[in-house]
Each structure stands twice: as structure tokens, then as C-alpha cells.
TrEMBL record:
GO molecular function, one term: alpha-1,2-mannosyltransferase activity
One cellular-component annotation, GO: endoplasmic reticulum membrane
Name listed for the protein in its UniProt record: Mannosyltransferase
Protein's UniProt keywords contain NAD: no
GO biological process terms held by the UniProt record: GPI anchor biosynthetic process
Length: 559
């Protein structure tokens, strides 16, 4: 007796109904079978979330547009100055790169600080803005307002992309709910709001750090790519060499867990490093005119020789006692709570934060912006804290949002706005004054208090008090700004012995007015404009900025 197929025997044993059904399927002629389309709302929502229809940057298009719109609003709601480097290490350099070569018959159009003469800074980051300036110039749209705002809007767009990358990463590592809380913490952080649209190398370092973290090999990540993340880390190092400090624990972890260690180094890290460094060397060779390894010079001056301490020093514990709590703001209790609750796989994030704070604490010169790149790591713990709150979640959200918005709007619209507002007055002097050819400006303020030609865009003769550090080792070395503030009146009379050399306009902080008043009266200077600057004046920085104009008989300069 021939043996029957095993599947048929099994169906017959299970019952007659099953056997008849199975035979019916076998005897049915070959034809296409129509499957019922599932119309469940849950099924469709899951299908949409996993698909790519209507997505941008891997996320819902409405979320992307919302984030971009928020950062654009963020950009226009930050109208204050933070530190000189947001202009003097980016926009001023870019303006010098673009326009000094275009207007060769003008000798004083643009200025580079001492770091560029000593080749401590690279041209890679300013080249982004110089390219924007060049495009605007070719289109005939390089008005001063566009030169000011377009670079900041470009930085805002990059920051928005980084925000979305952080959200996507947390959605992979955890779930959408945790990702939303991390995203909320990131968007409402007052310090992120304050910095993320500024043209600072620290801002670009933070953008590259978040994006690199998206491709970093973390447990649960679907987009891990060693070449992509190491390329972004290398680019961050090219732009700001100290960026490597934050990545040391992460790179060591990757190397330790990688089974094919030699392949990782020889076929990924070394090629990426070689290409990126070559790219930087070629750019700097073009603009410096000689081969220069600016990353080595930067680390030698700022880390090994500690030249940065010339611009101020703080005690070793400053980041832990003041810097880090101030930057985190009201996120601090949620960060601590999140550190206690977060899974062990996030321990590497906490190690990265502590490691970065410890290393930067060893350097005497400290600034809030130096630790800005660790904030996204902190937001992960803050979001995890909010996700686990039950009873006090709504009050906590209200507290976080309102407190951060107060600090964000105050620091973005009020605190230290005078040094930007006064540039508007200089712009009016350039474009509305019929006697512009005879106008000149002297800024008697702490050096680099204001932007320069990137915010004027006119070859107006301007001067400010210099403050390059001593690179020769003199014990009694004093910069021009220090000499001026020792005796401002004496400095003015010595500097301007001839009336013909007097500038037509003086810009000073209010605290200086009384001390130099005899000079102002004797040389017929009159106050023509007042700008609010800060509610917290310091030793050399006043609450207001005054503009003085020299008024002569028979010659009235229009402002």
C-alpha cells in the first residue's frame, strides 16, 4: 500500500472537517488568492510609523517642520551678545576672507585677531560663512542685515537637525514616549536656546556630537555606522580640537567592545582621520599660505602652555560648583533623578559627562560654553526622569517650561544687548551720513566687546583697544586695554595730541563717562545715543553704552 503524505495523514487524524478542507485546497486549481486587507487603526498607525511615506530626516514631516520653525524663532529671539568668539572666530574671519580680496584698494577693511596670526585657528568653520557671504555677493544681496542673519539662520537649521537626531536616537534606544520627554527637555533648555543659533565653534561642536551619537554603536541603535560617526567626530576635532576630550570614553568603549579591533583601526579610524586631516590641511594651506597643523598649535597654546589663563582663571571646582549647575539650570534635579533611574546601558553617558567636567576642570581658563556639548547627554537623563514621574508630572513640566523660558527670554532679549544695538547706530552712520568719508569710530571698551566689520559691512575707519596675550614671557607685560583702564584720561591726551587725529565718534560704557568727561568737554564731544546693555554691570562693563560725536563750529556731522 503506498504511503500517504504525512501532512494529509495528520489532517485526517485531526477530524473529518479538517481533512475535507485540506483536500479541497489540494484539488483547487492554481489561482491567485486574495488576502483580506486589514483596516485596524492600530495596524495602520504602526504601518505608517515604520514606513517612510511623509517622512523627512527619518521623522514625521510635521515634527521636522515644527522643530525647524522653533529654531528659526529661537534665532530671532536671541538679540544679545554672549562672548566675542561668536563673531571674532567666525563671522569676522569669514568677512575678511570674502571681502578683503574683493576690495584691494582699501587697507583697513577687516581684522583678524592674534590667534589667526599665530595660526591657532583653522579656516574650516569660517569657510562655511565665507561661502554664504560669497553667494550673497554674487547675487547682489549682501546687505548688512543679510550678512548678520543668514549665518545665524544656517546655524539654527543645523541645530534643528541635531535636535531631531537626538529624538530619533532615543526612540530607537527606548520608545517614543521616552524620546518625547528627552526632546522636550532639549527644546526647553535655556542654555541650548541661548547658544544653539550663535555662530560659535562650541555650537557646531555640539551639533556634530549629537549627530555622531546617532550613528554611534549603542545597544538598540538601528543606524550604527562606525565610518559616519568617526567622520563627524573627526570634523568636530578639526573645528575645535578640544572636542576629542568628550569622545575619549566613547571611543575607548567602542574599541573595547569591538571584536575586530585591528580592522576598526586600520580600515575605519585611520582612513577617516587621514581624509579629514588632509581636508583641513589643504584649506588652511590655501588661506594661511603655508602648511599649518592648527590643531596641534591650538592644543599646545591652550592646553600645554595654558595661554588661555591670560583671559581669566577659575578655581578647579568651578564647573562642579557653578558652571555645570548654571548651564543645566532647573533641569538639575531631574538630571540627578534620571541618573538614579536610568538603565546601566546609559552609564557611558554619565561617564562621558563626568570625564569632560573633570578634564576641563584641570584647565585654569573656564567658560560656560566649553561644557555646552555635554548638555544633550544630560537631557537623556532628564527625559528618563520625566518619563518615570507619576504624581508630580504636570507641575514638573510647568516648572521646567516656565523657568527655562524666563531665563531664555531674559538672556536672549535683555542681558548684554547693548553691544549689538550700538552696531545699528554705526550702520546708520555709514549708510545715512553724507559726510561718511570723514567719519571714524573709537571703541573705548574691553577689547572685542562688539562685533566689527561683519556687522557694519562698510570700510569705515574703526579702532578698538587691543588685548593680545604675551607670547614672549615678559613679567610686566600689559595690553593696550589694561594700560587704558589704568588711567583713561592720561591715555587719551597722550594718544590724541593733535586734533586732526581725533575720531568723530566715541563709544564707551557708562561707567567711563565721568572719568573722561574733561576730555569730552575740551574736544567738543556730545552724547548722541544711549543703549541699554545689562542690569548687572561689572568693573569695566557699564549698564549702558554711550555714543559721543564731535561737534565743531561750521561743521555739523549728521548721524
Amino acid at each position: 500500500v503506498p504511503s500517504r503524505p504525512r501532512s494529509r495523514c495528520r489532517m485526517e487524524r485531526e477530524g473529518g472537517g479538517g481533512s475535507l478542507f485540506f483536500r479541497g485546497l489540494q484539488n483547487r486549481p492554481h489561482e491567485k488568492m486574495k488576502l483580506r486587507t486589514r483596516k485596524s487603526t492600530l495596524y495602520l498607525s504602526q504601518q505608517k510609523s515604520t514606513g517612510h511615506g511623509g517622512d523627512l530626516l527619518g521623522e514625521n514631516i510635521y515634527l521636522v517642520l515644527f522643530t525647524i520653525a522653533l529654531r528659526i524663532c529661537n534665532c530671532f529671539l536671541v538679540q544679545t551678545s554672549f562672548v566675542p568668539d561668536e563673531y571674532w572666530q567666525s563671522l569676522e574671519v569669514a568677512h575678511h576672507m570674502c571681502y578683503l580680496t574683493l576690495i584691494l584698494n582699501i587697507t583697513n577693511y577687516g581684522y583678524l585677531t592674534w590667534e589667526w596670526r599665530e595660526r591657532l585657528r583653522g579656516y574650516t568653520y569660517p569657510l562655511i560663512f565665507a561661502s554664504i557671504y560669497k553667494i550673497l555677493h554674487l547675487l547682489g544681496k549682501d546687505s548688512v542685515q543679510l550678512l548678520i542673519w543668514i549665518p545665524r539662520l544656517a546655524q539654527a537649521l543645523l541645530s534643528a537637525i541635531a535636535d531631531l537626531r537626538l529624538y530619533s536616537l532615543m526612540k530607537q534606544l527606548e520608545n517614543q514616549q521616552v524620546a518625547r520627554w528627552v526632546f522636550f527637555c532639549q527644546l526647553c533648555s535655556w542654555f541650548t536656546w541661548y547658544c544653539c543659533t550663535r555662530t560659535l565653534t562650541n555650537t557646531m561642536e555640539t551639533v556634530l556630537t549629537i549627530t555622531a551619537l546617532f550613528y554611534y554603536p549603542l545597544e538598540g541603535s538601528k543606524f550604527m555606522n562606525s565610518v559616519k560617526y568617526s567622520s563627524l567626530v573627526a570634523l568636530a576635532f578639526i573645528i575645535r580640537p578640544t572636542a576629542v576630550i568628550l569622545w575619549i570614553p566613547l571611543l575607548f568603549r567602542h574599541f573595547w567592545q569591538e571584536q575586530r579591533k585591528l580592522d576598526l583601526i586600520l580600515h575605519q579610524f585611520l582612513p577617516v582621520g587621514f581624509v579629514t586631516l588632509s581636508f583641513s590641511l589643504i584649506i588652511d594651506r590655501i588661506f594661511f599660505g603655508q602648511w599649518t597643523l592648527v590643531q596641534y598649535n591650538f592644543l599646545k597654546f591652550n592646553v600645554l602652555q595654558n595661554v588661555g589663563s591670560f583671559y581669566g582663571s577659575h578655581p578647579w571646582h568651578w564647573y562642579f560648583s557653578q558652571g555645570f549647575p548654571a548651564v543645566l539650570g532647573t533641569h538639575l534635579p531631574f538630571f540627578i533623578h534620571g541618573c538614579l533611574l536610568a538603565p546601566k546601558r546609559y552609564r557611558i553617558f554619565l561617564v562621558t559627562v563626568l570625564w569632560t567636567l573633570l578634564v576641563y576642570s584641570m584647565l585654569s581658563h573656564k567658560e560656560f560654553r566649553f561644557i555646552y556639548p555635554v548638555l544633550p547627554f544630560c537631557m537623556v537623563f532628564c527625559g528618563y526622569s520625566l518619563n518615570n514621574l507619576k504624581l508630580w508630572k504636570k507641575p514638573a513640566l510647568s516648572f521646567l517650561f516656565l523657568s527655562n523660558m524666563f531665563f531664555a527670554l531674559y538672556t536672549g532679549l535683555v542681558h548684554q544687548r547693548g553691544t549689538l544695538d550700538v552696531m545699528t547706530n554705526i550702520q546708520e552712520l555709514c549708510y545715512n551720513n553724507t559726510n561718511i568719508s570723514s567719519a571714524s569710530v573709537l571703541m573705548m571698551m574691553p577689547c572685542h566687546s562688539t562685533p566689527y566689520y561683519s556687522h557694519v559691512h562698510h570700510p569705515l575707519p574703526m579702532r578698538f583697544l587691543q588685548c593680545p596675550p604675551d607670547l614672549t614671557g615678559k613679567s610686566d607685560y600689559l595690553v593696550e586695554a589694561d594700560i587704558f583702564y589704568l588711567n583713561p584720561l592720561k591715555w587719551l591726551y597722550r594718544e590724541f595730541q593733535n586734533d586732526s587725529t581725533l575720531p568723530t565718534h566715541l563709544i564707551i560704557f557708562s561707567i567711563l563717562e565721568e572719568e573722561i568727561n574733561p576730555f569730552l568737554i575740551s574736544n567738543k564731544y556730545e552724547r548722541t545715543a544711549v543703549f541699554f546693555h545689562t542690569h548687572f554691570p561689572e568693573r569695566r562693563t557699564g549698564s549702558h553704552i554711550y555714543v559721543y560725536e564731535r561737534k565743531l563750529k561750521g561743521k555739523l556731522n549728521q548721524t
